[in-house]
Amino acid sequence: MRSRVEESGLVRFDQVSFNYGPNAPVLRDVTFHLPPGSFHFVLGASGAGKSSLLQLMYLWQKPTSGRISLFGRDVAQLTRADKALMRRRIGVVFQDFRLLDHLSARENVALPLRVAGRYTSGLDEHVRELLAWVGLGDYLDALPPTLSGGQQQRVAIARAVIARPSLLLADEPTGNVDDRIALRLLYLFEELNKMGTTVVIATHNENLIERLGHPTIRLTGGDSRHPAIAHPPVLPAADA
Amino acid sequence: MRSRVEESGLVRFDQVSFNYGPNAPVLRDVTFHLPPGSFHFVLGASGAGKSSLLQLMYLWQKPTSGRISLFGRDVAQLTRADKALMRRRIGVVFQDFRLLDHLSARENVALPLRVAGRYTSGLDEHVRELLAWVGLGDYLDALPPTLSGGQQQRVAIARAVIARPSLLLADEPTGNVDDRIALRLLYLFEELNKMGTTVVIATHNENLIERLGHPTIRLTGGDSRHPAIAHPPVLPAADA
Amino acid sequence: MILARQRDVPLDKDASARFLPWLIAFMVYLATLALAAAIAVSNVAQAWDSGLAGKLTVQVPPSPPPSAGDSGRGQTARVDAVLDALRETPGVRSAEQLSQQEMARLLEPWLGAAAGSADLPLPALIAVEVVPARAPELASLQRRLDRAAAGTRVDDHQRTLGRLLEVARTLQLLAVLVVALVGAAAVVTVVFVTRTGLSIHRNVIELLHLIGAQDAYVARQFQRHALRLGLTGGLIGLALGAATLWALARWVGQEAGAVVPELTLSQPQWLSLLAVPLAATLVAMLTARITVLRTLARLS
Amino acid sequence: MILARQRDVPLDKDASARFLPWLIAFMVYLATLALAAAIAVSNVAQAWDSGLAGKLTVQVPPSPPPSAGDSGRGQTARVDAVLDALRETPGVRSAEQLSQQEMARLLEPWLGAAAGSADLPLPALIAVEVVPARAPELASLQRRLDRAAAGTRVDDHQRTLGRLLEVARTLQLLAVLVVALVGAAAVVTVVFVTRTGLSIHRNVIELLHLIGAQDAYVARQFQRHALRLGLTGGLIGLALGAATLWALARWVGQEAGAVVPELTLSQPQWLSLLAVPLAATLVAMLTARITVLRTLARLS
Ligand SMILES: Nc1ncnc2c1ncn2[C@@H]1O[C@H](COP(=O)(O)OP(=O)(O)OP(=O)(O)O)[C@@H](O)[C@H]1O
Ligand SMILES: Nc1ncnc2c1ncn2[C@@H]1O[C@H](COP(=O)(O)OP(=O)(O)OP(=O)(O)O)[C@@H](O)[C@H]1O
Ligand SMILES: [Mg+2]
Ligand SMILES: [Mg+2]
Asked: Counting CB atoms within 10 angstroms of each CB, which of A102, B2, D92, D286 has the fewest?
């Protein structure tokens, strides 16, 4: 199986098109493959389809046409149970974090290990180290609603990487932190990548992309086509 | 009243301290005043207290000590009904958007007008123009869950400015869009500002801050104090 | 505009919109049946009470006990003596001897056809009506009648009536208990549904609050929702309850008339059942309003 | 570990955790009472039925009707003739004439003290027991006995019994209807609570799904929650129901024994009431499981 993955790519899109319901297509005839251990940025204007592309990769959406294979297997052939197992090998940083509000930062990060039945108290130390590394050593037991936006984003990143996934998908993972922390987080991704994880990051932060210089997947389309209006339309004031 | 506002500032913090419950203080002895028609950036590391500062301004939190006045009135003296009326003069872009998922983009944007009883069908045209200006002319009737992250953020911005508020507070309003759109959105804020709106924007985007060159409020503290650890702690891989 | 406002909190898409009416209907149904039972039992008790109050039955045995002295007189003379004594008693409105046919009807279940034969030496029964306010004292009446014809006995039915009324009162108590329980359950349900609605839509409520909506504006949305669901459920429950009662009443009239006592309701009583769904609706609305306002008061 | 898993979906902080047990308790309470009523009524009906089944009453009038030919014989002879005829009839197990005392006890409510006097020419009553499987045909028996002593009548109590059983059956039907309704309401409530729980915790469920949790893992959390709440509520309801029944039984025993028929339950019947909360719990758990699995199946 390893060899099949080697030759076809860990992620493989063949003529994949995707649209939500009866709407205009979001992705059209997308074909690419990502070799194991690669590191890619996904670029594109807001609404171009970056998140949709990642959603196809983490099996949240199904392609309208075309074929997607992950880890050498056609995802259309997978049973529900297969998909659950495959998802355990994919770490995802969601654009809207999706933390569980009733679990502490530490419990949120440990969740993928627990769901996979891999959690042992020995790993607790590891969870703590990872949270300290993203700058949340003082917030181990804080609940997400009591964390700042950037802190929540870092918990989400820690959760995505804790189980050393084979594939890491991050959707705008640095939108709520400053460039110093952003670089630190990307360093974490690069470290994982060096150890074999295939990484895909959707981002707008062109600063970072330039600095790291990894190959990019560029999506065109989306809603950048609307013409500008010279002056912003502004109402008369309510008070006076 | 206008003169009282002129002399004391539209927003005035006097020795304001703030902490959540029994925790370490987030803000300590903050004193400043923002004259009507001013434009400020709030800067600070992730967790420094930017969102908390804005929450105090839009009356979501109460200071632990010190005195805040808005529009020349001490907020501690306001009744519930007074506060509701005052909130109608404040437009807020929340860091997590807070759109209503069951209302279309257009209805979300029109909501402040409706709640204030100021909505007339004539304003519908204005709502449409504003959405077109932020690049969502094709998404008037889309529900927020069917919008991309950046699209949602732009709906949130349109909602904050639709009623031409006297005070506009925006929390990381460009975290999910690229620099081109970010500049366009800031242009909208500047336009409003020119017409008299006092603007306060919390952001990490140092690019923008430099380009626009407005005065800044800089918050220190937060969790930038944690020492870096040389190598990110990474677990052995699950598969292989 | 009103329709538009209602949509601010999308309650009509919640599970509650589909389930609450049925839960309310169920409770109103039970309450309607229980209330109808309470009313019917009270009707029966009243019928018994007013049927038997102010009525006495006097038995004159066919022949005097051997110990008595007036063994010479025939039964007719003895009955006449008792009747005279009764009519002289203050407070007695009327006293009539039951005819042979009436006696036969009473005894038929026990004696069969033989009850009709004239030669059966039955005791004479006299139905007495007294003016309730001036009813003669029972013991002294018994003594006087016994003097008029030895062996005569007076029965004021109080023992039987007392027991029946006690049963009726207990049944009523049970019915009222059920109504109270159902009412409590309805309040609990609405509080639960409203709380749940608040937590499902907490973000919507917070946002409305943050953009300057007054508390009443938010409460009104929940209130209307509860009003609508409560009314729908209440009317369904009432309709089902009324149908059940109607079927029961028909059945009682046709088949069980002889065994089951009069269980029908008068028209005003039927109308009073309308109070159940109306009360349910009101309870639902007020509960929703109070719950929402309390929650909002906790937001700064 | 198990405790830790349960917390993945924070159901125990929902409003449902506080309200569902009381709603279930309320329903189990009603179902328990209704079921107890059904059982008690069935007990009474069975008592009547087995008391009267296979029993006939034969009346021999004190003197033959004038048209009959055997006017010479006394009542004793006539009764003996009827008894002989009965004993010769195949399928008759026994035939006994009621004694003077038994007659008096039966007639006392109607005739008063006079019922006891020997000189009252009452019909003789004969209690007959037949072998139910080989019961003689009623019309031919009537004809044969009339020949033995003119005017003799046979009563198999079917008319009275039929009516009483019909009332009993209707009451039972009502009780079963209430139990069914309560059961339906319980299912509706649990489905509602589960759906609501799903929509409150939709984000949690989606996330668990996205990080690779199996459906059963998610369903288990809701299932356990419903199990716990259902059991708590069921036991509260049963306890309250049992207390009410016990109080009623005491009251019936003491006060109303004469009027209200035997309404007590046997021990196994008391135990069978335990089925109500257990059923409620099971229903709650399965409903929750099915609802969750269905919702999950819709996630890709
Ligand atoms: N659930 C949905 N239903 C319908 N349309 C959707 C849905 N999600 C996204 N879209 C539409 O699909 C297009 C692509 O969205 P997507 O979220 O993939 O963009 P994106 O590249 O991630 O943008 P951003 O940078 O703003 O996050 C957008 O036009 C959006 O409106
Ligand atoms: N509701 C809350 N309860 C307790 N602590 C909180 C709460 N909200 C924020 N905090 C804490 O207060 C501090 C400041 O948070 P705040 O959200 O104001 O930061 P911020 O400057 O907006 O950061 P970011 O750039 O990451 O959004 C953080 O340490 C955070 O953990
Ligand atoms: Mg996106
Ligand atoms: Mg913030």
From this structure: B2
Name the residue in chain A with its Cα closest to that of D14.
Answer: A102
**Where does residue C94 rank: exposed (0-12), middle (13-18), buried (19+ CB within 10 A)?**
exposed
C-beta of residue D209 within 8 angstroms of C-beta of residue D299: yes
- Residue-by-residue DSSP string for D185-209: HHHHHHHHHHHHHHHHTHHHHHHHH
CB distance from B88 to chain A under 8 Å? yes
Q: Kindly list the domain boundaries of chain B, sorted by start residue.
A: 1-89+165-240, 100-164
Residues in contact with ligand 2 by the CB-under-6-Å rule are A 145-151, 176; B 20, 23, 26, 44, 46-52, 95, 222-223
Helix (H, G, I), strand (E, B) or coil at D160: helix
**Partner residues linked to D125 by β-bridges:** D59
Q: Give the Å distance between the CA of D63 and the centre of ligand 4.
A: 110
**B1-89+165-240: CATH architecture:** 3-Layer(aba) Sandwich (3.40)
* CB of B76 less than 8 A from some CB of C: no
Whole-number Å distance between alpha carbons of D238 and A13: 60
With residue C200 as reference, give the H or E element that holds it. Answer: helix C158-200
Q: Do C210 and B98 touch (CB under 8 A)?
A: yes
Distance CA A80, CA A86 (A): 10
Between chain C and chain A, are at least 3 CB pairs below 8 A?
Answer: no
Residue A75 structure tokens: 């995802």
The per-residue DSSP string of D3-30 comes to: HHHHTTS-GGGSHHHHHHHHHHHHHHHH
What pLDDT digit, counting tens, does each position of A82-110 carry? Answer: 999 999 999 999 999 999 999 999 999 99
Is there a contact between D91 and D150 (Cβ–Cβ < 8 Å)? no
A222 and B177 Cβ atoms separated by less than 8 Å: no
Contact A238 B181 (CB under 8 A): no
Assigned token pair, C98: 């039951």
Q: What is the ipTM metric for this complex?
A: 0.81
Closest CA–CA distance from residue B168 to any residue of chain A (Å): 12
CA C290/CA C292 separation, integer angstroms = 5
User: Which 3 state secondary structure label does DSSP give C172?
Assistant: helix
C116: number of Cβ within 10 Å: 15
Sheet holding B39-44, edge to edge: B90-93, B167-171, B198-202, B39-44, B216-219
- Contact assessment for residue C150 and residue C66, using Cβ atoms and an 8 Å cutoff: no
- Residue among B175, A68, D170, D110 nearest C263 (CA): D170
Chains sharing 3 or more CB pairs under 8 A with chain B: A, C
A177: nearest CA partner in chain B:
B46
In order along its 300 residues, chain C shows pLDDT tens digits of: 333 444 678 887 788 888 889 888 988 898 888 888 888 777 777 777 766 667 777 877 776 555 555 555 677 888 888 888 888 888 888 888 877 777 766 665 555 555 555 555 667 778 888 887 777 787 888 888 888 887 787 777 766 667 667 777 777 887 888 888 888 888 788 888 888 888 888 888 899 999 999 999 888 888 888 899 889 999 999 999 889 888 877 776 665 444 444 556 778 888 888 888 888 888 888 888 988 898 888 887
Say what angle helices B149-161 and B179-194 make with each other, to 10 degrees.
0
- Compute the nearest-CA separation of B15 from chain C (Å): 21
Residues 6 or more apart whose CB falls under 8 angstroms from that of D283 comprise D183, D186, D187, D190, D230
Q: Determine contact: B141 vs chain A, CB below 8 A.
A: no
Ligand 1 atom closest to Cα of residue B145? 1
Q: How far is the CA of D231 from the centre of ligand 1 (A)?
A: 46
Residue burial C126-146, b: 16+ Cβ < 10 Å; e: rest: bebebeeeeebeeeebbebbb
